[in-house]
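If your schedule permits, I should be very grateful for your opinion on a structural question. Please examine both parts with care and let me know of anything in them that strikes you as inconsistent. The record follows directly beneath this note:
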Amino acid sequence: MIRILVADDHSVVREGIKQILAGLDDMTVEDEAGSGQEVLLKMTAKDYDLVLLDISMPGKSGLEVLEEIKVMKPRVPVLILSMHPEEQYAVRMLRAGASGYLTKASAPQELISAIRKVSRGGKYVTVSLAEKLAFELDAGAEKPRHERLSNREYQVMLLLASGMSVSEVAEDLCLSAKTISTYRTRILDKMDMKKNAELTLYAVKNNLII
């Protein structure tokens, strides 16, 4: 039996996942968590065979939680189930130790297949994501500018590029406006840009936001 910890800040999503997996004789939703901190507390207190993890959660982001899980319990596979398209986060999540990446638009059967595969030690990626990973491994390929950013900087960059203000990003990530302003300055410097409009144009051109 695959014992799963479902981590998503929306209770309706968690309920939906439980319904999809209900009745299957080889897996069960052992626990659920609504925040990054709750995930880590439950991982400390209990053993699971797999973590189904969202990226956008209050407090610690899915990226930060993933990195901490890989330090805390490196053998536990983590499957990402996110609303964000592959272009935004998939390569970064796999690079950080995720065993697979699915969007929430995926069919229920695909989720079940992915859970079974990663629980056996495999990796679950789509064909398009496999192509992106192959490009990542090409040492001679010119890396896009956003690859210069840390995971947190990248997350802040996407939110600013989507049109959110510094204070809105701060509220969304449960950080201070001063901290986000510092990130913004660092991001613009690394990206060789001067204002948020340039971030938006870059993100649209590179299919990072729709």
Summary: The chain has two domains: 2-137, 145-205. The chain has a mean pLDDT of 90. The chain has ten helices and five strands. The first strand starts at residue 2 and ends at 7.
